[in-house]
């Protein structure tokens, strides 16, 4: 597979480490009333759709960017890749 | 068979080879199969299940029968297709699955028990007694059935990997592939042309017809010459494209030196990983059989193969020759043979409108219903005008039509489409991205159509890349359609083979149907049709047609077969690409490795690192003697240990402290410049996962250490925190593990030694107390970092210098410390010292334990948020009452082994009464006793109690006293001295 790195262009997937569901960007507020329950969801519950999925890849053998890659898990088509820091910065 | 004139073999040279010990001769250009046939060898193997005598069926990689073991000794390769093995001088091959010989095989008795060995027989027959399956049935079946055997010796050959990134990959070097490659090559595109054969040309090499007015081989040669002159074209022969992977990545095995007697200096095979912007699949087509009774006799082969052996390899079929075909292409075989001076008795064709291409009789409306000749065909039964008749025949070519090679087109699960016009599956609409299919693989199988289709598809593909390719001149060629009839098999009560390799007959399919194994996938698993090395290339579609007949549905309604990689078998060795043994993964050496080697150190693998385990001295006969000496040196005088492998991460930025507050469970922002703090990291689920030290070198500059094993993981997680959780924080990270050599200088004399090498240093307790750190210079100006930290519990430091000075620093420290009794120590002594001191490592922080269990509950700050803080407070973790304790065996000479489980003395030992487990254990030279650490329920309240450490595997119960895990200096006075 090739990952279209937003800074470095197409890179072989073997350079990356896969993490999974990009919802891990949305760490709950530890001060919230039901923080423990929300953290429990955050830590243990993942979407695993057959189809379009936003997921985290780490360019471990590259520039160390964490990317949010939008991938169709059925066809492996990659619909886009953004820097996770940009996604997070945009308030996603 | 015997040689006739012509062919693409080099008769000026003779090659000698052996098959089953007998000597034969052939020529360059031969395959093992063509050479055997030229020598009149028809019987080349035994079938998988029934041990039926078998001959060569095909002339290509689809071969199900002629599997041999090539070469001998460690280089022996079982299940090699004789039809693709290129002949070389001195080649040795042996037939398989026979005992004692291929001509006389005792296991042929299986054939007589055929009624017992029908589809799914092993599911039905060997049901009970249950225990007998593993002990008796399976080993017996495996011995009797099966293919070749592995040598069981290490592979002596070398392998390589390569990467290519062409604009266009052309799979197949036949008419369509050559036209595609030429079109793209002339347009200047980067082209890779790969063909599994050792010669380009594909089916053109096997035909007699002309391109324009010249032999096809001439055109092939001229195209090849032109492509060879184009710098933008790379031709790979002996190269099989075995898989279409994601995003235009293709796996290709190039057999670099399999055609040589010895690889010489070359690698045996290369694994190419080709990333192509576009791909033209021009893989051609594979001929299918027409099952009739006993259609597996040696001497019966595919008609196209018979023609290929005559035209390309100049091998005429043996004895009286006939062809059985349901399409016009079979007639071409007869016509070619006649043209080459080989008489053909008849072409037997079930079609009433069968043609005659001249020179042989056509028997229309006729079929072959049986064959005789156990070790070689002698007669066939033909039904003509309703009357059966046995006629003498030694060679029969059979053509049931051609299946486009759609395998690669379906590697992304795209389903092939049935074409009623072609009576074959064509590539479907869902192809791997970037792929187009051309020529016979797309159903455009006449030479005329294949040439034009290849050129056109290449132009279209390049156009998508913005490259305009000019039309090329293509020769005029034959354009006769095959006109196949839907005649799939000859109805009969006997056994008619569909899948030769797995011994699956029409009867088996009928039985599977009766037993309701109707979906094609179940049919395949029940009968094993389409499995093993040929993956049913000659069988699948025919089986589907038989199944469709039984269900009364059409073929497309009955199912389709799709393919997975690899297209043909791929050796595991080439997938490893030479990354075996020492090259399996990178080895990391510490900066003092050369010095340690010179000291005679024993090394141990720690992840990728090689670390000095201990340094044996003359007269020491057991590793424990060395380790005891090293550990005692640290307690009594001074020891040195390379600790470079601990992960080091440089953390810089205005908000570095705040960032570290969030990744460590304890507070780091309040750490003063010039001080070090022990730190604990949790996973977000609240479980402890790593520990280390955090040193503040400047207002905006920290350097932290991780455990050796988790260096990569911690860095990854910290980058996750930085980029994905808190990108607004002003902080940057860089791994400095390999940049700094770090040496632990431990023991009462460490201050004295360091004072001798640190420039202008005041290392007094007042100026540089426990947990101090500073940037210093050593040895007259070399920059260094000094940390007063201790893993051993003694007065100790760690000193870091740029990695390239690590070895020199170690030598200098050893030299300057001679009078102090300086002693190098390895990872074993390091382990003893830390267990004596009660420090946790990976055995204790194993991903299942909490800060509280480790006795570090206070290190999870409640005043701030950090990763894992919220979840660490959940009931399930808080309620765990097991605590880290020390254990001293009542008998100090008995070892409490790590992994033993702890029970109350006298209690019954069951899972329910389990009280914890032992994590680490060693002999303490300081205490003269074995000691251990472990987790024990309510451990902190049970000091002094005798518990039992049970090791049910070794059958030992050892009594041990529960003590503080700090065996040495529990007050920590020494390290603050």
Automatic annotation (TrEMBL), chain A:
Top-level taxon in the UniProt lineage: Bacteria
Pfam families xref list: SoxD
Any one of the GO BP annotations: tetrahydrofolate metabolic process
InterPro entries per the UniProt record, alphabetical: SoxD (IPR006279), SoxD_sf (IPR038561)
GO molecular function, one term: sarcosine oxidase activity
UniProt protein name: Sarcosine oxidase subunit delta
Species of provenance: Psychromarinibacter sediminicola
From TrEMBL, chain B:
InterPro entries: 2Fe-2S-bd_N, FAD/NAD-bd_sf, GcvT/YgfZ/DmdA, GcvT/YgfZ_C, GcvT_C, GCVT_N, Sarcosine_oxidase_asu, SoxA_A3
Keywords, alphabetical: Oxidoreductase
Keyword Metal-binding attributed: no
A Pfam family recorded for this sequence: GCV_T_C
Domain Aminomethyltransferase C-terminal span(s) in chain numbering: 882-969
Domain of life: Bacteria
Biological process terms in GO annotation: tetrahydrofolate metabolic process
Domain GCVT N-terminal: 593-864
GO molecular function: sarcosine oxidase activity
NCBIfam families linked: soxA (TIGR01372)
Family: Belongs to the GcvT family.
Name of the molecule in the record: Sarcosine oxidase subunit alpha family protein
Lineage, highest ranks first: Bacteria, Pseudomonadati, Pseudomonadota, Alphaproteobacteria, Rhodobacterales
């Amino acid at each position: 597979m090739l990952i279209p790195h937003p800074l470095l262009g197409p890179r072989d997937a073997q350079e990356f480490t896969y993490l999974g569901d990009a919802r891990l960007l949305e760490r709950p507020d530890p001060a919230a009333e039901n923080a423990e329950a929300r953290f429990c969801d955050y830590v243990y519950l993942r979407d695993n759709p057959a189809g379009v999925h936003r997921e985290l890849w780490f360019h471990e053998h590259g520039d160390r960017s964490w990317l949010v890659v939008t991938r169709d898990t059925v066809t492996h088509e990659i619909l886009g890749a953004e820097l996770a820091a940009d996604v997070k910065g945009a308030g996603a | 068979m015997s040689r006739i004139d012509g062919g693409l073999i080099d008769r000026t040279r003779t090659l000698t080879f052996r098959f089953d010990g007998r000597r034969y001769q052939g020529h360059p250009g031969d395959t093992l199969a063509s050479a055997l046939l030229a020598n009149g060898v028809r019987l080349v193997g035994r079938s998988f299940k029934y041990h039926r005598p078998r001959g060569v069926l095909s002339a290509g990689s689809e071969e199900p029968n002629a599997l041999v073991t090539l070469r001998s000794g460690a280089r022996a390769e079982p299940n090699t297709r004789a039809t693709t093995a290129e002949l070389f001088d001195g080649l040795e091959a042996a037939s398989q699955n026979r005992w004692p010989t291929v001509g006389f095989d005792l296991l042929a008795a299986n054939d007589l028990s055929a009624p017992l060995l029908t589809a799914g027989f092993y599911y039905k027959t060997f049901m009970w007694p249950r225990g007998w399956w593993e002990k008796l049935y399976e080993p017996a079946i495996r011995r009797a059935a099966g293919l070749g055997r592995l040598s069981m010796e290490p592979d002596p050959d070398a392998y390589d990997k390569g990467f290519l990134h062409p604009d266009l990959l052309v799979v197949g070097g036949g008419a369509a592939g050559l036209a595609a490659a030429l079109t793209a090559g002339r347009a200047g595109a980067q082209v890779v042309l790969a063909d599994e054969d050792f010669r380009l040309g594909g089916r053109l090499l096997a035909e007699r017809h002309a391109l324009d007015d010249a032999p096809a081989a001439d055109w092939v040669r001229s195209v090849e010459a032109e492509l060879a002159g184009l710098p933008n074209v790379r031709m790979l022969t002996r190269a099989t494209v075995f898989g279409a992977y994601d995003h235009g990545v293709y796996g290709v095995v190039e057999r670099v030196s399999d055609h040589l007697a010895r690889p010489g200096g070359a690698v045996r095979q290369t694994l190419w990983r080709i990333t192509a912007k576009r791909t033209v699949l021009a893989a051609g087509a594979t001929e299918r059989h027409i099952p009739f009774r006993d259609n597996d006799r040696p001497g019966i082969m595919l008609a196209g193969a018979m023609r290929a052996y005559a035209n390309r390899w100049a091998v005429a079929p043996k004895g009286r020759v006939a062809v059985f075909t349901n399409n016009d292409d079979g007639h071409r075989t007869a016509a070619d043979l006649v043209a080459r001076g080989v008489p053909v008795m008849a072409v037997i064709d079930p079609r009433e409108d069968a043609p005659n291409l001249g020179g042989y009789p056509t028997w229309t409306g006729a079929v072959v219903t049986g064959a005789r000749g156990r070790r070689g065909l002698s007669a066939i039964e033909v039904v003509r005008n309703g009357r059966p008749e046995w006629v003498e025949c030694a060679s029969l070519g059979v053509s049931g039509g051609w299946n486009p090679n759609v395998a690669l087109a379906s590697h992304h699960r795209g389903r092939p489409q049935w074409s009623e016009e072609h009576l074959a599956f064509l590539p479907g609409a869902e192809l791997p991205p970037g792929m187009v299919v051309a020529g016979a693989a797309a159903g455009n199988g006449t030479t005329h159509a294949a040439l034009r289709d290849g050129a056109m598809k290449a132009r279209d593909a390049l156009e998508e890349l913005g490259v305009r390719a000019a039309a090329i001149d293509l020769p005029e060629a034959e354009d006769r359609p095959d006109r196949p009839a839907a005649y799939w098999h000859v109805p009969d009560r006997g056994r008619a083979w569909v899948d030769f390799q797995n011994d699956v007959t029409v009867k088996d399919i009928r039985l599977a149907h009766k037993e309701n194994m109707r979906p094609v996938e179940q049919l395949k698993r029940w009968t094993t049709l389409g499995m093993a090395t040929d993956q049913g290339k000659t069988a699948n579609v025919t089986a589907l047609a038989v199944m469709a007949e039984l269900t009364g549905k059409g073929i497309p309604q009955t199912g389709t077969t799709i393919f997975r990689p690899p297209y043909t078998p791929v050796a595991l060795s080439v997938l490893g690409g030479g990354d075996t043994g020492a090259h399996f993964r990178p080895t990391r050496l510490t900066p003092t490795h050369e010095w340690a080697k010179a000291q005679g150190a024993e090394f141990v693998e720690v992840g990728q690192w090689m670390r000095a385990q201990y340094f044996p001295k003359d007269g020491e006969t057991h590793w424990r003697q060395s380790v005891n000496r090293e550990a005692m040196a640290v307690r009594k005088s001074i020891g040195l240990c390379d600790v470079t492998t601990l992960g080091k991460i440089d953390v810089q930025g205005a908000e570095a402290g705040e960032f570290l507050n969030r990744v460590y469970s304890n507070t780091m922002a309040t750490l003063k410049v010039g001080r070090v703090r022990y730190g604990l990291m949790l996973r977000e689920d609240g479980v402890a996962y790593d520990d280390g030290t955090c040193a503040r070198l400047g207002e905006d500059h920290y350097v932290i250490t991780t455990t050796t094993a988790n260096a990569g993981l911690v860095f990854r997680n910290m980058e996750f925190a930085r980029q994905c959780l808190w990108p607004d924080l002003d902080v940057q990270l860089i791994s400095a593990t390999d940049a700094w050599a770090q040496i632990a200088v431990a023991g009462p004399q460490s201050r004295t030694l360091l004072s001798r090498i640190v420039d202008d240093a005041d290392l007094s307790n007042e100026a540089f107390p426990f947990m101090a750190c500073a940037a210093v210079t050593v040895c007259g100006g070399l920059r260094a970092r000094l940390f007063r930290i201790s893993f051993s519990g003694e007065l100790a430091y760690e000193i870091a210098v740029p990695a390239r000075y690590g070895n020199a620093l170690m030598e200098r420290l050893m030299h300057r410390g001679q009078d102090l009794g300086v002693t190098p120590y390895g990872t074993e002594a390091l382990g003893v010292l830390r267990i004596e001191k009660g420090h946790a490592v990976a055995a204790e922080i194993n991903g299942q334990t909490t800060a509280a269990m480790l006795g570090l509950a206070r290190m999870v700050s409640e005043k701030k948020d950090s990763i894992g803080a919220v979840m660490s407070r959940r009931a399930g973790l808080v309620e765990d009452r097991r605590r880290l304790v020390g254990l001293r065996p009542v008998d100090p000479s008995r070892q409490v082994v790590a992994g033993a489980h702890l029970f109350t003395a006298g209690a019954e030992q069951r899972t329910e009464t389990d009280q914890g487990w032992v994590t680490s254990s060693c002999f303490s030279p300081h205490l003269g006793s074995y000691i251990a650490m472990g987790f024990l329920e309510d451990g902190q309240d049970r000091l002094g109690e005798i518990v039992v450490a049970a090791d049910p595997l070794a059958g030992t119960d050892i009594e041990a006293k529960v003590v503080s895990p700090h065996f040495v200096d529990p007050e920590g006075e020494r390290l603050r001295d």
